[in-house]
Q: What sequence folds into this?
């Protein structure tokens, strides 16, 4: 199991994956927005998306878990 | 002159405008979002009006709330600063219809400049050299591929109506262009509610030069020499200077004269009045028009410090209908100035870094000025751009200014967030910077940690 965390403080602009989806390391899972900049959050490992712990337009802090990969 | 003005902006530029307006005897009104209620610009003004929640669309871009604030406080004019509603011709027209003066160019000139492909056509007709590019906006992928063949790769795909690097991407090959074109259209639609994009030749490592313009409503237009803003990350400026190292000690005098003439021609082609900036790329001895910005630039202080002209004061006078009494032959450069944008961001990866400013102490000394939007104890929120302050250094020569800048940056203390002072110090240590050999790829080539 791998937890994918926010690398910056900001808001969730787009969620680019679905629960049950197979992803590869490097795939964009979530796009965060902070200070007028969009920052993609990428999968650190390959795996199955088992949980999405954020919602679009939600504020997140650096280090918050956004996606759980199984 | 106006009795009372409203500043439709935030942070350092709101403070700077308020200071100038007060110095000219005007009453000042600040407007703010919920995220900014504690910031210094709100307290600097004589009055302050809340616009709405933090997101810009609910506050600093909220035309109805801005108009209501101006009416309620009986402000006679609105200064838009830069960004937000500063280049919104509809806003300028809306407030004019309500008897409030927009401190900026006429709405018709703004509209002409806003559409970049239209702007290119207009200035090219006036004899200003432009970057080779598509004649019109590009309707589909097959047209994009045909146009790119004609222009020559690499090509830059840009959103008409964009700015600040939003919606831009480079394609080196036809295969890349197909992908980049589609992405660019999507971004243009999302960001600017229109899906028009155009192509132009991409120069891998040009210099970015710009000409400051001032003009009055009676057609008297002058330039206030050049600025160089080649040091950029993600198409956004990081360090700016006046004058350009390209022209130090009388070098490239022919290019310089050509640049000024082209800047004036472009401004006149747009029917420009008030303060504006014409941006150019310089590559292999040639200058090419990029765009004209219908507003005050972030980096305007380096021009003010080296020419002695207060651009914001002139913006107010011109907006109030006064004549520009400065003559071209009165404009001369005295000394050198550098501006360092202090961003709340990681100095290596350039990731945004909002958070609390636990310590924020400005350096002091001759030729050292810090235009800060925040004070110690404030929080930098993720809602707006990462600029927290501008450190502006002036001196007799470029070398003396660099030496002074190193000292000032070393004495600028910021704790609580990541910020880019270490990046600025690396830039100042670079031999290429010291020798004035800079271009828009400088940070990738010379300022790695």
A:
């Amino acid at each position: 199991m791998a937890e994918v965390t926010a690398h910056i403080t900001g808001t969730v602009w787009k969620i680019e994956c679905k629960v049950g989806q197979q992803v590869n390391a490097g795939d964009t899972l979530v796009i965060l927005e902070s200070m007028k900049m969009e920052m993609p959050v990428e999968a650190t490992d390959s795996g199955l998306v088992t949980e999405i712990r954020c919602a679009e337009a939600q504020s997140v802090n650096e280090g918050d878990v956004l996606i759980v990969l199984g | 002159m106006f009795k009372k003005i409203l500043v439709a902006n935030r942070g350092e530029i709101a403070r700077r405008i308020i200071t100038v307006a007060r110095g000219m005897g005007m009453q000042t009104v600040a407007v703010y979002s919920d995220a900014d209620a504690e910031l210094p610009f709100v307290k600097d003004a004589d009055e302050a009006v809340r616009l709405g929640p933090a997101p810009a669309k609910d506050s600093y871009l909220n035309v109805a709330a801005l108009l209501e604030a101006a009416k309620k406080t009986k402000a006679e004019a609105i200064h838009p600063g830069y960004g937000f509603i500063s280049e919104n011709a509809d806003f300028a027209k809306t407030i004019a219809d309500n008897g409030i003066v927009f401190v900026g160019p006429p709405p018709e000139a703004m509209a002409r400049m806003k559409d970049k492909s239209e702007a290119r056509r207009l200035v090219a007709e006036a004899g200003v050299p432009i970057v080779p590019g598509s004649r019109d906006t590009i309707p589909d992928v097959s047209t994009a591929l045909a146009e790119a063949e004609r222009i020559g790769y690499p090509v830059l795909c840009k959103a008409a109506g964009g700015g600040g690097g939003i919606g831009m991407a480079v394609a080196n090959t036809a295969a890349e262009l197909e992908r980049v074109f589609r992405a660019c259209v999507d971004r243009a639609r999302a960001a600017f509610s229109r899906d028009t994009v155009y192509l132009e030749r991409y120069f891998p490592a040009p210099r970015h030069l710009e000409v400051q313009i001032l003009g009055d409503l009676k057609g008297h237009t002058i330039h206030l020499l050049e600025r160089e803003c080649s040091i950029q990350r993600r198409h956004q400026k990081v360090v700016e200077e006046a004058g350009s190292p390209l022209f130090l000690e009388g070098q490239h005098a022919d290019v310089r004269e050509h640049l000024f003439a082209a800047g004036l021609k472009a401004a006149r082609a747009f029917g420009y009045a008030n303060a504006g900036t014409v941006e150019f790329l310089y590559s292999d001895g040639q200058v090419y028009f990029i765009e004209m910005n219908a507003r005050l630039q972030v980096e305007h202080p380096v021009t003010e410090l080296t020419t002695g002209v207060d651009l914001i004061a002139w913006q107010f006078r011109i907006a109030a209908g006064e004549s520009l009494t400065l003559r071209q032959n009165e404009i001369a450069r005295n000394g050198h100035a550098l501006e360092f944008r202090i961003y709340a961001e990681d100095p290596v990866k350039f990731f945004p870094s909002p958070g609390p400013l636990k310590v924020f102490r400005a350096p002091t000394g001759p030729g050292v000025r810090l235009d800060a939007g925040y004070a110690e104890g404030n929080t930098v929120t993720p809602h707006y751009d990462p600029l927290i302050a501008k450190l502006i250094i002036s001196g007799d020569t470029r070398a003396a200014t660099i030496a002074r800048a190193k000292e000032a940056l070393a004495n600028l203390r910021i704790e609580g967030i990541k910020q880019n002072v270490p990046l600025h110090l690396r830039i100042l240590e670079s031999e290429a910077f010291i020798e004035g050999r800079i271009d828009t790829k400088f940070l990738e080539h010379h300022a790695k940690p």
User: Anything to note?
Assistant: The mean pLDDT of chain B is 94. The CA atoms of residues 363 and 412 of chain B lie 5 Å apart.
